[in-house]
Design goal:
With 397 residues, the chain is α/β, with parallel strands linked by helices. The chain folds into four domains: 51 residues; 59 residues; 171 residues, Ribonuclease H-like superfamily/Ribonuclease H (Nucleotidyltransferase, domain 5, 2-Layer Sandwich), CATH 3.30.420.10; 79 residues, no CATH class. It has 13 helices and 15 strands. β12 and β13 form a beta hairpin. α5 packs across α7 and α11 crosses α12.
Amino acid sequence: MAQYHHIKFLKEVEGLSQRQIAKQLGISRNTVRKYLSNQTAPTVIQRQNVYRTKEYSAETKRVLPIIDKWLEEDQGRWGKQRHTAARIYRRLVEEYDFKGSESNIRKLVAKQKKKIEEVYIPLEFRLGQQFQFDWGEADIFLQGKRTRIYLFCIELSASRARFVRAYLHERQEAFLDGFVHAFEFFGGVPTEGLFDNLKTAVQKILQGRDRLEQDSFLSLQAHYLFKAEFCNVRSGNEKGRIEGTVGYVRRNALVPIPEVTSLDELNVMLREWCLRESKQRTVPRSKETVLDLWEKEKEYLHPLPVRRFEACKLISCEVNKTSLITVETNQYSVPCSFVGQSVWVKLYVDRVIVVAQNQVIAEHPRSYERNGLITKLDHYLEALLKKPRALRDAHAF
């Protein structure tokens, strides 16, 4: 448009010839002649229409259906393992003896991708309707040692209130424990939650959106009265809000890398960070802060049950001759009167509780080391009465 204006001005106002205009502007006389012959300015729409009517060469037309087929197949594949324009060009040369240029293929691929690009629909959620969940990873310095932690991230879809809690793993007990703390933080439970197809929740993917869910996850839903909805396979964008939250938390709450003495200390910091964020951030397309809308959303959440959910993994163990049970390579002591018996172990994130005959017979802090031995002297008192000389060298003593 600027060039059209300049050419017309030099011709009509300053009276220069086509040759003089071409020389002054450094363009060809044909370009000057073309613009002077147009009585109307070339609008953006006109220029686009001219560009779009450009015909492909016979060689390009030959491979166009092949390119479309490859791009369409890529839609069902992992985003990091799809065709690039360069890869498409190399395949065309190697497999179809393509003689055209790579630059033309790049332009063509970019144009064809726009045609099949997925359309995303803006969403609005009712208060108390939904939450979204995802795991994230980050590094911290735990007792001076660089440690990889796993972030339990959950967000209320309507008010955008967030809760983050750190764990040393993503196992089922951590997964369940995170929801116990999250719902208590939010002050209630939304109607439904949106999840990936993670193994701690899904036992088997069935047809469509149907899933065979893990029993422990179904117990969690029954306890808190919410329903789980699952994304399509490899479609994390369906829970886009929490996908963005994971990266935001890592960049803003954990940079610089925090130095803590325990995960409890870190989780207090994360909780306070979530509260500060809710006071400072505003809800998109609204003048309300997250905290203001969160307070309103609490009225629509299901109330918390009276009893806290037992966020643990239940396993069966045999007590050996040294009155020990083995859990994940670590050994824990139980009262020696239970030697040779089968007991139930409740495996929590931070502790191990042993149950027999509907009674708790032992409780230990959970160890995440390997091949450890955790004992209590009380568990061996009965045996030490019979073998008092063993007291000096007893591990528990």
